[in-house]
């Protein structure tokens, strides 16, 4: 059974492309309050769970020991755009632990944003691991290892103590199974685990309310979510969906993208978590899906309008001529 | 009724993303010899029909008048990578008609390939319309206008004589209807028309055999297809799918990509045209689909192996670690 079409892209008044997917919203008690498509199939949440993966950074005391505030914690949860501020802060986090870019095991890639990359190249910038969109998360892992007295070398591996702590946190939050049998390798080389969409959404709901979590974990989880909402630029970057979603209503929306069409979000005031997966892995569709689901859940009218503007918008070509629209289907309206 | 899943992307041994679509192969008589999915729905073939859109360049005598050889004709059919060779040749084509980059109405964008763009930025390169992946096609349009004594200004518009010639050629080749009612605006601002997939495949089959075409058009069509196969680098660029597909067996495969998951191809020796459309618009899937359909049609074993290697391959992350595979499903095997 195919998942429903949740997003359409039009041209000249016709639907040119279609994105299928599944979407779910869950409260902190685990109750599903919205669901479309097959949400039982395990999916890799990828970078959308970086806020969960950042728990050991706070819980271990590393964040406090190294003097990290909201920005550093937000960057540890980020898939950042490689803008100069992101790169500098990742370097500063490593320096706090007495390390540098050489400690990062995420690999190198040019910032995905063409303007950022070409500006960097034009000014003679040299590509380093700090520019990897995951460098903040990896800097956090290095800090956890150093603070706990482990060698950071190999911190990306399944058997390294840091990944063990991450796995424990993920399991506690989502209630799902995390093991070698559900494990894949992420783009930045750390383990990523296939889990059902509602488990991920439930985990984010719990992060906002603390329900079912030990007090220390509840406190750390809340601190992470609040850090991201306070510093949305450090979770993504200029014009990015995560940043825009969190800037709509400061403190009211948490949002984090993941590769291959995953997007997670939370509404802390309502204690609700959201997770979507676009079947085909398209980011443009996942952004629309998560914004549309959030729009169905919020009561504030201005916020709802802002979410709807991200869930549906016109598309222009290189000359700025409108060629069509991206819109969610009735299933998400 | 959903189209079948034709391509899967795996991670850690699981399917992470799925691409649905339709694919068809048609001979020059219009007989469908392979078909998957709903091929009756009109689709925008986008840049995949640039070789058809280049017919007026040859038929008008402009190509001969300006001394264009295979490279210039191939570039007129290209969605090029903006590499220095492409940019220089587009400029030379315009110069032959006494024009320059200012005549191009395609808009500007950085070359899509990050290495090409960052190398260009690092060496102080300035972005011009010549870098637009469609600049070769647009240079061809400008040449047609100039050669026929029309002002090239507004050559991108539906009512300009050049677009009238393009429309006539498309209609003759595909047998489909081309009018304002089926018209959308392409990324480079020229009209693009929604037509059924088999009509496009049939048009490419006719381009290779000349069947049903006036002698002059048949000759021009064959010259265009041969120019592209002779100069595959000028149809796309380094490591690009069109280029790789045509390099597999020189003179035996024609291939051209289009935005939003369209890919067209032809096997001149068999007089067969192929057209695929990935429902969600993904290029990675369209590339696999068209290679897989071609692999089903060819008899040469080495060529078939080469096509299969494009239809299915491993995927590595930033550290070069294999994270999964892209593969076609049984529907295309």
UniProtKB/TrEMBL annotation, chains A, B:
Signal peptide: none
Regions that span the bilayer: none
Listed GO MF terms: asparaginase activity
EC number of the protein: 3.5.1.1
Keywords associated with the record: Hydrolase
Keyword Hydrolase: yes
Pfam family name, one: Asparaginase_II
InterPro entries from the UniProt entry: Asparaginase_II (IPR010349)
Record-linked PANTHER family: L-ASPARAGINASE, PUTATIVE (AFU_ORTHOLOGUE AFUA_3G11890)-RELATED
Protein name per Swiss-Prot or TrEMBL: Asparaginase
């Amino acid at each position: 059974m195919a998942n429903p079409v949740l997003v359409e892209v039009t041209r000249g008044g016709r639907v040119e492309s279609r994105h299928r997917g599944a979407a779910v919203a869950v409260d902190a008690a685990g109750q599903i309050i919205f669901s479309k498509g097959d949400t039982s199939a395990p999916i890799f949440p990828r970078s959308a769970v970086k806020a969960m993966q950042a728990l050991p950074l706070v819980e271990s005391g590393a964040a406090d020991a190294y003097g990290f505030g909201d920005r550093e914690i937000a960057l540890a949860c980020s898939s950042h755009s490689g803008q100069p501020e992101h790169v500098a802060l990742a370097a500063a986090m490593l320096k706090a632990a007495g390390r540098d870019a050489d400690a990062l095991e995420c690999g190198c890639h040019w910032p995905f944003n063409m303007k950022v990359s070409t500006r960097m190249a034009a000014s003679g910038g040299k590509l380093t691991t700090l520019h990897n969109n995951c460098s903040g998360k990896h800097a956090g892992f290095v800090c956890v290892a150093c603070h706990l007295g482990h060698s950071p070398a190999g911190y990306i591996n399944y058997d390294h103590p840091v990944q063990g702590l991450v796995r424990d946190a993920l399991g506690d939050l989502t209630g799902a199974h995390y093991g070698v049998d559900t494990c894949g390798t992420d783009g930045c080389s750390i383990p990523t685990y296939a889990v059902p969409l509602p488990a991920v959404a439930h985990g984010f709901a719990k992060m906002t309310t603390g329900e079912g979590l030990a007090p220390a974990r509840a406190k750390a989880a809340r601190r992470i979510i609040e850090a991201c909402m306070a510093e949305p630029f450090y979770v993504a970057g200029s014009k990015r969906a995560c940043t825009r979603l969190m800037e709509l209503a400061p403190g009211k929306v948490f949002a984090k993208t993941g590769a291959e069409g995953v997007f997670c979000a939370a509404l802390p005031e309502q204690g609700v978590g959201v997770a979507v997966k676009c079947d085909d892995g398209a980011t443009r569709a996942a952004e629309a899906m998560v914004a549309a689901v959030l729009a169905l859940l919020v009561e504030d009218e201005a916020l709802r309008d802002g979410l709807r503007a991200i869930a549906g918008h016109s598309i222009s070509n290189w000359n700025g001529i409108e060629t069509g629209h991206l819109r969610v289907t009735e299933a998400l309206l």
